[in-house]
Amino acid sequence: MSNTCACCGSAVPAAAYGCFACGAARGETPGAPGVCPRCQYRLMQGAKWCPGCDLPADKISFGAPAPQAATAQPSVASDPASTKPARERPPHPPGTGFNFNTLTQGAVTLGNKVVGKQTLILAAAGAVFAIFAVVIVTLQISAQRPPPFGLPPGSPQSAASLNAEAVLLADPIDGQFFLAFKEALPADYTAVMGYLLVQAPDPQRATQRFDKLLGERLEVLRLANASYIASAETSVLDRMADTMLAAMRAPELCQASIDPTGLVDRANTHARRLSSASNTSIVQAIASGRKHQVARPAPTRAQVAAFNAALQRQLYDRQWQAYSGGALASLPPDEQCSVHVGVWDVIASYPPGLSAIWTAQQMGQPAG
């Protein structure tokens, strides 16, 4: 099945059941074409809202002549469906990369095969990005790719978009991450910020939507730069291990990430600082890997055995059995978090060189 939305042209993640940009269901058969009367975005009937400005689909006239101006009203008579009340927008689908229940699928075995390194990678990679309330969608909106700062195609850059970005950069917590992102990866920052301000033009009012979209974009960025994260400098990855451990020890961050619809309360400044630090460690690792491209080996069999033994000592028997058997989701949320804390606690306890090897294994490959 195509991973491109037939109604608006946006890319749809393989595990998503619908398009994040316009709300159309995966595999939706598009109907008549239409043009958003507010921002002139071209889309097909089947979309639930305009990807450019979030105008509900019942306000868009499909199959009718395009409006002459952005303020023109759609023709109600041309589309009988337009007389129906607007359907409630469904919640965003569960994340494809950060649900703890799908991340840890068994421990590293001690026999002739080393099969669990992928497992540990999934466990920690998911743990990191679940912190950011994540669900992933790819960056481009087909031919309608938004210009910088998220304005509708063909529109001049508005003062409102610039002001929204300035407010984000000035935030005492989140702004620290955005400034680090802008400095470390300026081109990626521009692409991500542009998309965010298309989808959530007023982040201060639509905070939950903005937070979810931010997590989605960061996961796209991480997956596209997995090899660079793995080749970051030793000191960068060693610090990342400490940052991830601190984040996993925060109950709200960890347990909110287990729930696909969970978000951290923005009033919890401690959790937000940990989330911001985790985000920052990711973009800094990408920048370091692009610059230095450090080659490091995978853990040896002896190191794998030592890791398993250290982790098993930290867990109750039922937790270890669930972890090693790939049934982590069968545990209560607090016990799942105990497992993830254990993984990062072992890694953070290692000297920098070995810690970097394991952090690279955890963070340097796609989750799922």
Describe the structure.
The protein has 368 residues and is mostly helical. The chain has two domains: 1-90, no CATH class; 100-363, no CATH class. It has helices spanning 117-130, 159-170, 174-184, 186-199, 207-224, 226-230, 234-248, 251-258, 269-292, 301-314, 317-324, 333-349, 352-363; strands at 33-35, 42-44. It has a two-stranded antiparallel ribbon with strand order 1-2. A hairpin with a 6-residue loop joins β1 and β2. α3 packs across α4 (186-199) and α3 (174-184) packs parallel to α9. Mean pLDDT is 74; it is low at 66-157.
What labels would you give this structure?
about 375 residues; mainly alpha; 2 domains; two-stranded antiparallel sheet; 13 helices; 2 strands; about 45% helix
Number of strands: 2
Q: Detail the poorly predicted runs.
A: 66-157
Task: List the helices and strands in order.
Answer: EEHHHHHHHHHHHHH
Beta strand %: under 5%
- Tally of alpha and pi helices: 13
Radius of gyration from CA coordinates: 22 Å
Percent of residues in helices comes to 40-55%
For the biggest sheet, the summary is:
2 strands, antiparallel
Which structural category fits the helices and strands? Answer: mainly alpha
In short:
With 368 residues, the chain is mostly helical.
